[in-house]
Specification:
Layout: H1 25-60
């Protein structure tokens, strides 16, 4: 019996530490671009959180 509603593994999911030897150069470049975009997104959230903390610190410093 097949479960069509069962969750599927994301074929494009990046697994840290996985063997990269089977990837083509194009696949590796795509993977790198995805990782770089995710790092940029993460950096943006870190900056926003730091700004929020700095604003809160400014309010409570009297």
């Amino acid at each position: 019996m097949f479960h069509e509603d069962a969750p599927r593994a994301n074929a494009a999911a990046i697994v840290p530490g996985e063997d990269l030897s089977g990837f083509s150069i194009e696949d590796l470049e795509d993977r790198k671009a995805v990782l770089e975009a995710e790092l940029k997104r993460t950096d943006t959230f870190i900056d926003r959180k730091r700004e929020g903390l700095a604003a809160a610190d400014a309010v409570f410093k009297i």
